[in-house]
Specification:
alpha/beta, Arc Repressor Mutant, subunit A, Aspartate Aminotransferase, domain 2, Aspartate Aminotransferase, domain 1, 3 domains, eight-stranded mixed beta sheet, three-stranded antiparallel beta sheet, elongated, disordered N terminus, binds pyridoxal-5'-phosphate
């Protein structure tokens, strides 16, 4: 580093004496000098009207070229921090508002009596509470697919194929509702695999189901509207609804799914009901046909909408999957939401929603104002992945793998956790709700499990009101056999730790 010349005898004013210009820094010297002088002006150590040394003297004393000082002064003058008086040199501008500069100087010191800058809105504060914090995914994280089993070779070939020589249409920005061939592929997949009634016109490509929930809340909810949510239920839905200004009405879930009768007595005039009928999250119940029809009937009579979250319906291990609720809707009331987070990998951040004809324009407008359109990068590859049958094939392979893993988990529970938990086989999904036998507090066990590097959240955390049952959500799909067995031993340790308190 260059050393400065004789500092004491130099023209270097006090505000620059601590300045260490670093010639090896990637930040050019003139920028370093500019920042130092600007900071000194803003924090008040260089007062309004102060005359700066001439550029020649300063350059000598800082041991830099005169051009460096000239460039810094030019920038400061252009931005209004300095003003030049011909023949007299450069001065700190007199017009800078003194009070603003003092506030800035004191702000760093958190002076007593000064107001802090404003915080988030009440809605923002509510959202902080709702978002909570989730640990990084680890052993047994619910809903985590087996990432190592994904055909990345094939996926990277598809990505490269579409981007080696991309058409201009990929580069200039896409359509608000998504890449047309992907919308067509998704519409075909949903018609055949889920009996969803749609054409590509109804399909919107989104960045994961979470964005679909957010868009639905923006389009369908006015501040103060009531929305039924499942109790217990998925926190992501609640967050999206609160962000949209909705009042949440938790409606109990029984063995047939969300209780429509309870919803009708709690809030008959709700604007929206949110359900996960294929595999209720988190309890895993499949909504009965009778309940589905009741729900649609209520929606018609109440002039309300139903939001169907079909987040993991592909994983059904016994019996035939029940078709989507949307396929029963003759009235244009169901908004259908799905995702490839569970059938491919969550980092892809792609999902889809199907909206009735009369809402397409509103969703298009809101989409434009939200993030313009989905990123182009992965959409063409995903369209081909679906069209060529790779998605269906991958799902078939994962269904077999996950059924095996569920059986291994249940077997390990029988061997290692006998008398401590009840773990029953489930016909569908990616997690089990394991009940704790000794009446232990599920939050205490979940946090003791975290110390064992296990992410098995407490069921009671999914209730808005007082929980009427407890347990742990254990995701078995993303965990290889050896890790399942080790994880079960970790769970045993966590349960014993809490039982011994
Ligand atoms: C019930 C439920 N709905 C929706 C989602 C959101 O999925 P995405 O990753 O597509 O936003 C999840 C993800 O965990 C979920 O569990």
């Amino acid at each position: 580093m260059r050393s400065r010349r004789d500092m004491t005898a130099s023209s270097i004013p006090a505000y620059l004496r601590t300045l260490a210009l670093a010639p090896e820094s990637p930040v050019p010297m003139h920028r370093q000098l500019y920042f130092a002088i600007r900071e000194a002006i803003l924090d008040g150590s260089l007062k309004r009207g102060t005359r700066l040394p001439s550029t020649r003297t300063l350059a000598q004393d800082l041991d830099v070229s005169r051009n460096t000082v000239l460039a810094a002064f030019e920038q400061l003058t252009a931005e209004g921090y300095l003003e030049g008086v011909i023949g007299s040199g450069s001065f700190v501008t007199l017009r800078l508002p003194e009070e603003a500069l003092q506030v800035r100087a004191e702000h760093g010191a958190h002076t007593k009596g000064k107001a802090r800058p404003p915080g988030p809105s009440r809605r923002g504060a509510d959202l902080i509470k709702m978002a909570g914090s989730r640990p990084r995914p680890t052993t047994f994280s619910p809903g985590m697919p087996e990432l190592a089993a994904f055909p990345f070779e094939l996926w990277s070939r598809l990505l490269a194929k579409h981007w080696r020589d991309p058409p201009a249409s990929f580069l200039v920005g896409g359509e608000a509702l998504g890449f047309r061939p992907l919308r067509e592929a998704v519409a075909f997949y949903l018609r055949t695999a889920r009996a969803v009634r749609c054409t590509f016109n109804n399909v919107i490509i989104v960045s994961g189901a979470q964005q679909a929930l957010d868009l639905a809340a923006r389009v369908l909810i006015d501040p103060g509207d009531k929305a039924w949510v499942e109790e217990p239920g998925y926190p992501g839905i609640r967050g999206a609804l609160v962000a949209g200004g909705a009042g949440l009405v938790p409606v109990p879930v029984d063995e047939e799914g969300l209780s429509v009768a309870a919803g009708q007595s709690l809030a008959p005039d709700a604007r929206l009901a949110c359900v996960s009928p294929s595999h209720q999250y988190p309890l895993g119940i499949t909504m009965s046909l009778k309940r589905r029809l009741e729900l649609l009937e209520w929606a018609s009579a109440a002039d309300a909408f139903v939001l169907e979250d079909d987040y993991d319906s592909e994983y059904r291990y016994a019996g035939r999957p029940l078709a989507a609720l949307q396929g029963l809707d003759a009235d244009g009331r169901v908004i259908y939401v799905g995702s490839v987070s569970k059938v491919m990998f969550p980092g892809l951040r792609l999902g889809y929603m199907v909206v009735p004809d009369h809402l397409i324009d509103a969703f298009t407008a809101v989409r434009r104002l939200t993030d313009t359109h989905p990123p182009m990068l992965a959409q063409p590859a995903l369209a081909e992945f679906i069209e060529a049958g790779h998605l269906v094939q991958h799902i078939r392979r994962m269904r077999k793998l996950y059924a095996e893993r569920q059986a291994i988990f249940i077997d390990a529970c029988r061997q290692e956790l006998d008398g401590l938990v009840v773990a029953r086989p489930a016909e569908a999904g990616m997690h089990l709700v394991v009940t704790l036998s000794q009446g232990l507090d599920d939050r205490a066990v979940a946090s003791a499990a975290q110390a064992e590097n296990i992410d098995a959240p407490a069921l009671s955390g999914y209730f808005l009101g007082p929980p009427n049952r407890q347990g742990l959500l254990v995701g078995y799909t993303g965990v290889p056999e050896a890790t399942i067995r080790r994880g079960v031993l970790g769970l045993r340790q966590a349960i014993r730790t809490v039982a011994a308190r």
